[in-house]
Amino acid sequence: MTTEEQLQDWRNAALRVESEVRKAVIGQDNMVRLINVALFARGHVLLEGDVGVGKTTILRAFARAVGGDFERVEGTVDLMPNDLVYHTYVDGEGKPRIEPGPLLRHGERLTTFFFNEINRARPQVQSLLLRAMAERTVSAFNREYSFPHMTVFADRNKVEKEETFELASAARDRFMFELRMETPRDPAVRRALVFNPDFHDVDELLQQVAPDVVDWQSLNRIASAIQRTVTASESLERYVMDLWDASQNPSAFDVRIDGVDMKKLILAGASPRGMMAMLRAARVVAWMAGRTHLVPDDVQAILPSTLGHRVFFTPVYEMRRAQIADALVAQIMEKVATPR
Amino acid sequence: MNPLSRGPLPAHGRRSAGVSVVLSALFAAALLLQAGASQAQADVAVPPSVDAAASGMAGTTPDATQATEPTDAQATQAAPADAPATTPEPVIAAPPAVVQQPRAFGHVLGDVLTQRVRLSHDGREFEPAALPPPQRLGVWLERQTGRIERDADGRRWLVMSYQIINAPQSLIALTLPEWTLGTTDGRALSVASWPFSIAPLTPRNTFAQGALDALQPDRDAPVIATAPIERRIMLWGGLCIATLLGWALWWVWRDWRARHNRPFARALQDMRGRADTAPESWQALHLAFDRTAGRSTQSASLHRLFERAPHLEARRADIERFYTQSAEFFFGTGLPADALSVRALAKQLRALEKRHER
Hints:
The structure holds 2 protein chains of 2 kinds. By secondary structure, chain A is of the alpha/beta class. Helix content of chain A is 49%, strand content 15%. Chain A starts with a helix and ends in a 5-residue tail after the last helix. By secondary structure, chain B is of the alpha+beta class. Chains A and B meet through helix 14 and helix 16 of A and helix 6 and helix 8 of B.
């Protein structure tokens, strides 16, 4: 039985994780908050962003604060699924050897798995990863390997399109959040990033982050407790249902986007899995705010990150996804009223 | 026939012709010789016309317009050569001028009589030394400024005009005064007096018979067709009234619509018949905030409301409290004990929005 004191302690720990990560990563407060939410909601995160904005740094900082092992894989066109599971080599004595790959290597200690440039990897690799994400298990060497504490962070390179394999919509749906990490705009932050030598050496920078702020092995338990503790009122349920309806039929809520025929825009709205993820994340936001009930602001805080990549557009509008998805989510937030 | 010619002879008639002047002078001289009355001599020896002639000025007598006896003197008499006076005194008697007198009869109040004097002395043109000044002559006449004109034959005439400025009660005879016109070289021409008649404007007594009353009734104004005018008045008046009515209706409708459409006014309407603690009342106020902000508004997006409707800033604390309590009510543990009155808040906000709209 989870007591209120325990929840309070965990909340303090969660907030401390955030503050520790902020020591290493500046100008990305919202990003830090959302990754933290994903961590405590046990959701995976698809990162999209400019090159060199600190995606790896922020993930390493989290891995250090949360504890457990960090693993990083570079997505390449010749990467095969097996490369994640094991790798073969000839040892010094000339014998062939098989070692567990990056996915298996850490066993249950794996907490943060960073797949860089996932859209460069072949669909076979992506599907293996998706299974690992969904079930947190992989079959190899005639047995099941499980990584119950793993959180997958995948980076999607949005700049280059050559030799890339765009994530299928089903694959995107497995990620709780799609976060866009942008270059900080605050001039003071930009100046610090460029001129402050503290930010130049990542390893040294990460030393400033206190390790093991929260027990990584209890993350699942904490997440479960949060989900059971934070309640949603009838009004909020109606609001979330309205949001779901709006993602499927925006014109019913008077959602309009310039230059878009709203009746022909949506191929499929958010999936039930997507709505579940949204609620899980919203509950964590409420918990972090010290509440045991959800309010619309909690949902709105994570709505852009949970809904944008889950709505499937008709092909004619799919090419303008980035632009239309943002406008659609903003409009849904504006038009769906609560309480009602 | 000139009516004046048959009128009674006045007791103290004034001579109007140059001949008469000469005769009177001779008669006066005889009296002087016989009676030796110096006073009489002074009166007659220097008649006004002589004075005027000597001074070069036109002379008038004060009673020049008194009724006079008919005379046979010809107005347009061209030459004075047939004057009966045989012993004229050339020193004092100016030769008569050639005068074209006005019509002697048929005048009434306001008529202008024009006398034309030929500017010729001994067959030679001359310049008058001075023209008679415009002035009033007794109760009957007003002399106007004289002017010189030239006729078709090139002869020059002095034109003198007299306006009748009084109306007699019966037909009477008057006389244009005699006067003398001096020349620049000291000579003079005399202009004889000229009788004329003036008729009254109305008879003294009315006939009092039948319709011959003192005043005749006013003539009826001619009847004109008013139907087209009335039709036009009806048409334009109707259009005008229709326009005004339309405008008034539009104004009332706009006012009603504005009242009906103002978010907080509408919220208050929706709250009618509901308790302050009813969820519907709170939802009505939420809807009003959403409509004011033009979007769904929550605590975290309240700044959007104040950006859009800065006039609500005055109630910012109340609005924030409403959102906090509403979150508790709808999403939390229920309505707090110290819940505000949504109706009172809506009324305050309605006043703000109304004032802002003006």
